[in-house]
Amino acid sequence: MFDGGGSSGGLSFGGDYNPEQWPASVWADDFSLMREASVNLVTVGVFSWSRLQPTPDTFDFAWLDEVLDGLHEAGIGVCLATPTASPPPWFTRRYPDSMPVTRDGVRLTHGSRDTYCVNAPAYRAASVRIASELAARYGRHPALRLWHVHNEYGTWCFCSHCASEFRAWLRSRYSTVDALNDAWSTDFWSQRYAGWDEIEPPRATQYLRNPAQELDYRRFLSDSFLRHYLDQKAVLAGSSGGVPVTTNFVLGDWVPVDHARWSSFVDLVAIDDYPPDLAGRAFSADKARGWARAAGHPDGRWLLMEHAPGYTHSSSGLRRSAESLSSVASVYLDRGAVGIMYFQWRASRGGAEQWHPALVGFSSAVTSEAVDLGASLVGRTPSVVSADVAVVYDEESMWAWQSPHLPTRVDYTSLVQSWHTSLASSAGGPVDVIPVGAPLSAYRMVVVPALYLMSAAAHEWLRSYAGRLVITAGTGLVDEHARTTPDSLADLIGATIVERDFSPWLDTLAPTAAGARPNVTYIPSLDIIDLEQKLLP
Questions:
Q1: Does residue 306 have an active-site annotation?
Q2: DSSP class of residue 43?
Q3: Does the first or last residue of the chain, that is N or C, have fewer Cβ atoms within 10 Å of its Cβ?
Q4: CB neighbours of 192 closer than 8 A, spacing ≥ 6?
Q5: Burial class (CB in 10 A: 0-12, 13-18, 19+), 475
Q6: Residue 204: exposed, middle, or buried by beta-carbon count in 10 A (0-12, 13-18, 19+)?
Q7: Which three-class secondary structure state does DSSP give residue 387?
């Protein structure tokens, strides 16, 4: 179990530390400032591949030895990253086929981060090699507290490597082309496939793409990233005597990663969170705890791996946060976070994120707040959160709601967050954000907003729940293959939907003879209802 950076059961406090961006003469000052701020955990090495492996056949660990030894002497634990999110220039020059290809067929060039195709064989091999070198050298280092694989999985690619792996993934999922044709509804627009070799990734095309193909491609990318993570985890876990292994989940509608599924494969759920307000932070925190609890992590433990100190991004640019570091941290800590980590410790001198907020070198006021916050966390232990109300959030439905072929636009994440905020206000206590399939017995009420995709298993999951179940419009419109499922909710809500108006959304219902299940309430719109007056006991 993750020990919080040093003291058993305590909270972690710190952030990303990139000493390679600064002369070695600065490092001692960093260690001293970290002690002053009560920092006990820093993430090191996230973007250091070109330093660690400057050429294909040479490695340079001397600088990292010095950093880890210095941190250990200062009493600061290390979350050591594998640097595979940013391959070095020599790699992309040697293996240009490992560069990502856009949906339009453009192969990108080196010059930023995330310049890789996760399915390129050379990239996969190089990733395991650098992870193996780090594991062999630092697996037993006394400063090591946590392994941090990669960084923010989510890079899209549509290259020939992905096409080949996509076909293999589909063959494993469907077994026969006929089954795939049925799942994808390929008789529409003459898309029926005669063989696996005819199937390509959903690249740019003349008009609307097949929504089922698009969904499966996101699932495929999620599984491809997971394979890449597990390849490295196997190397790291075998070298370090039980040091936990994780990666940092990046949150966003563009991310093709099923984090609820992934949560069963990480030793600690960890998220990066950059919302514009406290409501967004609360939603992210409760979502992380929901993923962790559903995956069986004790007490739903999770870690805030990154957030920006003292500033938020808005449409007009970077702005100073109205809330103190302490107030922001409390949102996460009150919702079960085992640590508060930032990006980053010291502001960068140059590069594309030189104006990203940091604890040191960006704002003296932020630095002062960080010192006070760190001192206040010493001796504290993580909160254990127990909620009896939950709202369902499904990333696959979030993906599906983005399809341009739909009759209206629904910002699914914002909708569920609005329900979360309303429920927290009505219930007067914590609200879990849970994935489809999570255990439900602890909740007296579960709200299901606009769960567009509903498989037979998801339907049975809702039927099995005996508490107060609130279902809104937009739920159960299609199955897991985006095929319409008329009257899929009839046995739950006691009605069929005979007509829909999509702007604004309003369902017209016709009651069935059987009637609604006594514990089920259906809301025929996407409006947020005040459940304090309507339903809460």
A1: yes
A2: E
A3: C
A4: 181, 186
A5: buried
A6: exposed
A7: coil
What CA–CA distances, in Å, run from 390 to 72, 186, 267, 285, 442?
42, 37, 24, 13, 9
Give the tokens for residue 378.
């010493």
pLDDT band at 346 (very low <50, low <70, confident <90, very high): very high
pLDDT digits (tens, 9 = 90+) for 215-224: 999 999 999 9
Q: Sort strands 77-81 and 389-392 into parallel, antiparallel or unpaired.
A: unpaired
Distances 250 to 8, 254, 255, 288, 304 between C-alpha atoms, Å: 27, 10, 7, 11, 11
- State the sign of the Cα–Cα–Cα–Cα dihedral 411, 415, 417, 421: positive
Q: What would the two tokens of residue 318 be?
A: 């970077």
Write the CA distances from 206 to 156, 194, 201, 209, integer angstroms.
20, 21, 14, 8
Q: Angle formed by the axes of helices 325-333 and 364-377, to 10°?
A: 40
Of 497, 529, 517, 335, nearest in space to 423 by CA? 529
Say what the pLDDT of residue 381 is.
97
Cα(405)–Cα(207) distance, integer angstroms: 10
Distance CA 470, CA 467 (A): 10
Q: What's the number of CA atoms in the CB half-sphere (13 Å) around residue 151?
A: 23
Written as one string, the DSSP assignment of 210-270 is: PHHHHHHHHHHHHHHHHHHHHHHHHHHHTTTTT--EE-EEEPSTT----HHHHTTTSSSEE
What is the reported pLDDT for 1? Answer: 64
For the segment 240-298, what is each residue's pLDDT rounded down to a tens digit? 889 999 999 999 999 999 999 999 999 999 999 999 999 999 999 999 999 999 999 99
Q: Which of 20, 36, 133, 152 is catalytic?
A: 152
- State pTM to two decimals: 0.96
CA 404, CA 293: separation in Å to the nearest integer? 33
Query: What is the three-class DSSP state of 505?
Result: strand
Q: Is the dihedral of CA 486, 490, 496, 502 positive or negative?
A: negative
From the list 214, 306, 369, 395, the catalytic residue is 306
| 148 phi, psi to nearest 5 deg | -120, 100
Peptide bond into 89 cis (omega under 30): no
Burial tier of 316 (Cβ tally within 10 Å: 0-12, 13-18, 19+): exposed
Of 130, 376, 79, nearest to 245 (Cα)? 79
Q: Which amino acid is at 410?
A: V
In this predicted model, what pLDDT tens digit does every residue of 308-337 receive, in sequence order?
999 998 778 899 999 999 999 999 999 999
**281 vs 168: CA distance, rounded Å:** 39
- Could you report the per-residue pLDDT of 1-41, keeping only the tens digit for each? 676 655 456 999 999 999 999 999 999 999 999 999 999 99
CA neighbor of 343 nearest in space, from 95, 17, 99, 102 = 17
Annotated active-site residue 460? The verdict is no
